[in-house]
Sequence to fold (467 residues):
Amino acid sequence: MPHPLPVLLVTSNGVGMGHLTRQLAVAASAPAELDPVLMSLSGALPTVASAVARGALPELADLRTEYCPSRRSGWLPRRGPAAALRRRYPPYQWEPYFRDRLRALVAETGARLVLFDGVVPYRGLREAREALPGTPFVWMRRGMWRAGVGADWLTHATVFDHVLEPGDVAAARDRGLTRERDDAQRIASISIASALRLHDRAQAREALGLDPDRPALLLTPGTGALEDVASPVRAALATVRREQPDWQVAVTSPALARHGLGDEADVVLLRDTYPLARSLAAFDAAVSAAGYNSVHELLGARVPTLLVPGLALGADDQLGRAAGAADLGAALVARPDDPTALEGGVTRLLRAATREDLAAACAALPAPTGAAEAAQALGALTAGAPAPAGLGDGEGLGPPRWRSALPDLRTPVSVDGARQRRDAPTLHLTQDLPDRLGDEPVEHLVAGSSPQYRRARARVARWVYRS
Fold:
């Protein structure tokens, strides 16, 4: 049997885990002839790696991953003119760094294809595509962009050999610039649940530490990266405690969360519980943000849900997605800035008749088979794709010597095994991804890296670090 062909799945950082989870769904759905490798700018990648390591994601036990810091990484210079300019212009030297990271990883893994899931096709991504003319590049571009947003980003669609657009339960409410375009292969919606072995109710409650006999409400407010999500959740908690004090409440607290919830004694805190989609049968109802993954996972699991859409989440039209789900009778909706609507929505959600109606509407929704469809499309695109040029000794990677004549805005670092620089963090070039990304910069290497790759990556790091 021939060896499976490597394909590189790349995600932007985003404000949550949407891009990352969609790519994981594709990886878990990949046919045997493909060998997915994941490269992510998301600070939540350690959560995924930890889940794989402890056996919580057996479907992806063999998935190789590599973390790449985003252009807004906390490892940028901390003080002085360099820090001020980098804050003003985050892409400075990051774009060629990202380009070379992609080039090096494609060469190291022998990837026959690159699938990018993100809203913005970074300049570094486009330059990597130019440097790899024989390697197909595919854009996973979900719809439901906010009206008028993203015209500049769409001008780069022609850089890609193919565009995949995952379906959305609320497509009828799509008012974004992608809606009328004919450049994408439209596939069904994507939910990682379609690629997982799901828990039944008893298994799910045991896995999450919930009482097996009491009704359970899930509160999943998002990360709070761009707006206050704590206030709506506290309002929902107050309503539950007043209306149905026998209900138990679980609150998600992912690694990226900034909402600071979970200090209440009667709340079950689900800290970095991933993938929660496996255990949604535990819940009788949910109050959730209206991000792509949350909506398709919860409604796909027929969990009666009150959607509280984010109002300041970049390109994502959560208001439109929530309204579209409500149009179908599959969810309730309340704005986060309307306390009266929130209280009324939670009160309705706690009624058995309301939950029965919502679950019945969810049962009529199309199956979220998009991950398998995307994987099949990748298989077709890799057929006949040539192997990329080998890494060799990494010629052409890293900054050229003439860059030393320009202002040096790189982050000063010490290097493992060398003399430590005063007040400089240590740069770790390692295959071991820490459980949490902190102040120590990490140049993460894909598992099984060759010595040539390690040397090449040390050169690429010189774009953004000065030792």
Q: What stands out?
A: Residues 414 and 426 are 4 Å apart (CA to CA). The first helix runs from residue 18 to 29. The chain has 14 helices and 18 strands.
